[in-house]
Structure formats: structure tokens, C-alpha cells
Amino acid sequence: MIWRRRVLMGDPAHFSVKGGANPHTRTWLGTRRSVDRSAAIAQWRRLRDVLRDLGLRVVVVPADPGQPGLVYPANAGFLPFVDAEKPIFEKTFHLSNLIATRAGERFHYERVVTSQGLRVAAVPEQLRFEGEADFFPAGDVQVLTHGRLENQRWVPRVGIPPWKRIYGFRTDARVESFLAPLVAPREIVRIELVLEAHYHGDTALCAFGPRREHLLVWRPALAPESFERLQTQFGDALIELSDDDAAHYAANSFALPGPDPVLVLPAGVSDRLLAQVRGRGVRPLTVDVGEFLKKGGGSVKCMIGDLGLFEEA
């Protein structure tokens, strides 16, 4: 028997910008961006093939024309101790409470996750929580990212255009009391997000390495005290991203831990960053998923939901 990681990817056949729920999805005038679907499908297939070549089993979430955000299943929920070699009957996948424009995705994720033999459970409905995009392991701790919750809306401003969009963030800090027993005895490190363009923690932070002990960080996306907390926690294991790498969503990378660790990054990141990753004993791979970032606000990690390790013959 061997242990093999399974991941979710959402069929991109109906990928489009429906709600325009983050700053990447709209033009400077506020209009929703238009997706080049043929380019998106080709990029999606390339990422899928890279994951398969790495030995992962890719479980596809079927497309639904009414739910174009299914291409970003990192928001589906989270599995406690995602790297543990545990029998399937001991695992429970906790479904997210998504933003209103994506709430309809939950049924699809639940159906696919249970088809893999996993149990599912709910997070209290009054708590906004968007899964492993905001709650993920990093070294010996579990990071919980959060920010100010807003009713997304247009407000007037001085300038051209004379309005702007308020987006806010996606996870309520109060969910910590519910999550803590699920990952005990691991400590939860709470990190506050402050830039709406980096609305999930996995757009500003990425833990990678054999035990996810290294951490990519883009400092401007975090509250100063939160960055200081990470500096204290990770020390020399912390790598600060440049503004240019952050703009390419370098932190939105998929880490494959273990004895031969890999980090799958979005294309366009700097040679300097790739060298830093190699310097930590990790093999970097790059994949172009620009259509998903530029139009939908999600890159490599957003496109992957981690179901953990399964025992296979």
C-alpha cells in the first residue's frame, strides 16, 4: 500500500466573472472583466497535467454554468492534519461558509468530497470562513488569516471614476474558537490581512518545504503586528517577497511536502525567488495560469483544494 495525495480542481468549462467579488475581477471603471475561456482551459489542463506528473490524483469538480467560481476549490473547506497518513474513516472535511456570490458552490464541493469517501461537517453558519485559503499548516503551527468583513458595495469618491468598490475580506476572526479543537494541539497563529487585492491569506503567504517549515510572505498585505508575529515564529525560515513577485501572486503557490518537496509557482516570478526556493532544498516548477489571476483573482493555489493523503493499493 502507498499513500497518494488527492486534490480538487474545478472544470473550467464555464469559468467567467459573475460577481466581481475581488479587485482583480473588475476594470478601473468597475466593469467585470471578460475571460478568454479557450486560454483558461488550456492553462487549466497544463496545471492538471503538472500535478498528475507529480503523482497526485486530480479529482475534478464538474462545471456548473451558474457557479463559475468552482475553478477555485481552495475555498471549498479544509481538512485537519492534511499531511497525516490516517485512515479515511478518521478524516472529516469541513466545508466553508462562502461569500454570497459563491455560496451555491458548497453543494458541489460536498458532493465531490463525499464521493471520495470523506465525511463532511459544517462550520457554524454565522461565521464566514473560506477554508484552506485562510487556514493552513505552516511548520508546527496552523495559520489563520482574517480581515475586516464588508458588505460589498459601491461608494462615492473624489476622482475618476467618481466611485469605488468596497470588497473586504473573507474569513471572520471569531471562527478561531471553532477551529482550535479541530487542530489541537497545534497552536493557531492569527494573521490580519489589510490589502483587498490580497483578500485571502494564501495570496500573501505560502508555507513550503519537507514539513512546510519555510514561509513566503509579502509584508505589505499584512498588519505590521502580524508580520512581526511571523518573524518571531519563523525567523530565518521566512522569505520576503518582492513587490513584483507579489503582483504575480507568488504566494499563491501549491506546496507538495515530503522527502522530495516541490513548489508549483505561477509563471512570471523572478529568477531570484526561484533560486531562494532551490536554496531551501525545494524544487520549483512554474505554470502559467494568468487568465485565472488577471480575470478572477486566483492563481495556482486557488485552483487546488487539498484532500490530503489516501491509502492506495
How are the SSEs placed, and which strands pair?
Layout: E1 2-10, H1 37-53, E2 57-61, E3 77-78, E4 92-95, H2 105-115, E5 119-122, E6 135-138, E7 141-146, E8 153-156, E9 163-166, H3 176-183, E10 187-192, E11 205-208, E12 214-217, H4 224-234, E13 238-240, H5 243-247, E14 254-256, E15 262-266, H6 271-279, E16 283-287, H7 290-296, E17 305-312
Parallel strand pairs: 1-2, 4-5, 7-10, 12-13, 15-16
Antiparallel strand pairs: 1-17, 3-4, 6-7, 8-9, 11-12, 14-15
What do these coordinates show?
- The protein is globular.
- The protein has one domain: Succinylarginine dihydrolase (L-arginine/glycine Amidinotransferase, Chain A, 5-stranded Propeller).
- The strands form 6 sheets. The protein has a 3-stranded mixed sheet. Strands 3-4-5 form a 3-stranded mixed sheet, covered by helices on one side.
- Helices cover 22% and strands 26% of the residues.
- Strand 1, helix 1 and strand 2 form a beta-alpha-beta unit.
